[in-house]
Amino acid sequence: xxxxxxxxxxxxEKTGRGRVLVxxxxxxxxxxYTDVLLAAGFDVVAAGDxxxxxxxxxxxxxxxxxxDLVLPGVNGVEILRAVRERDLDVPVVLITGNPTVETAVQAxxxxxxxxxxxxxxxxxxxxxTEHAMRLRKLASVKREALRFLGHTDRLMGDRAGLExxxxxxxxxxxxxxxxxxxxxxxxxxxxxxxxxxxxxxxPGPLLFLEMAERLGRxxxxxxxxxxxxxxxxxRNRGTLFFINLHPDDLLDETLYDPSAPLSLLASEVVLEIxxxxxxxxxxxxxxxxxxxxxLGFRLAVDDLGSGYAGLTSFALLEPDFVKLDRGLxxxxxxxxxxxxxVASIAAVSQDMGIAVVAEGIETxxxxxxxxxxxxxxxxxFLFRRPEELDSSEMFPLALAGWxxxxxxxxxx
Length: 412
Fold this sequence. Notes:
CATH architecture of the largest domain: Alpha-Beta Barrel
Number of domains: 2
């Protein structure tokens, strides 16, 4: 068994009931915890300090981790974070002799399963470990059920796990760009910047945003996105870029900073605000919109047809563009009701001086009907999928999916 403060691991013989990592810098307690859990039938690996625990986590997989909160060097919260970097589902039980409300709250927020106070009795230790083991099995079953149902893009885990994944995702964040084309001739009007990451556990932007929302990091993510788009815009002056804003971005004062990288290029940027969330809940939204316009930004209402009904977003934003959601465009060539709706939206929007963008064009039939109905601009997989591009690729671009002799349409 390791001496106090020693990072050498003591490994117990496998028993088959489940593997537990026990971390405690008090030698007597470490031996007592290990003996109790061994007698209960668990396979136990013992670490005398945080460094030893990190080594163990790098060598083996565990079903449960029991760790002292206060340790020399690497403490229990840091061990919890390290566990989450490797596995979102492993239950962690924190043990301390000096409990406080602050440490208890922090432990629970970060995803500790339980918070035991020293000296924990043998029965209490066994009950906590057995309960953690059952939850570990339940988490595995839930993940298997999600995979079977095809929902592998939904993130499960506690705050520490989400923070680890979010940190990796932001470290490999990049923007993919998809062209927006003129209906009149298929030429490129602008580019939409779309959030992407190379982190494999975050397969799509919606999950990325969901993590940011759960962690209260939406504004941090928004700043990273705007900084990235500003770099691309500087390299491609004279090109119009569309960039999505989360409603919470409207509360970020850096968005309104005239010296911010994107503000300096505002005349070449369209800010898209989704209809999926209500903008009227943003304090002083009218004044915020006026400030953005004074900086030179243009505005678009995104996802029209998918979110909140009514005129609130139009009245508050007075947009330059409206982007029709894919739900209105899909199979529009075979659905008369959709054709009537899109025709009406296009006619009213043009009367108001608002350019209409049809998103999600995937077939020639959809393209042709949308063109006939009066949409000014188009975007979709039929023309080009979103890609990470550099300036040399953006301009000499021949788009697929556009027929010769297309009818001319008024330029927005």
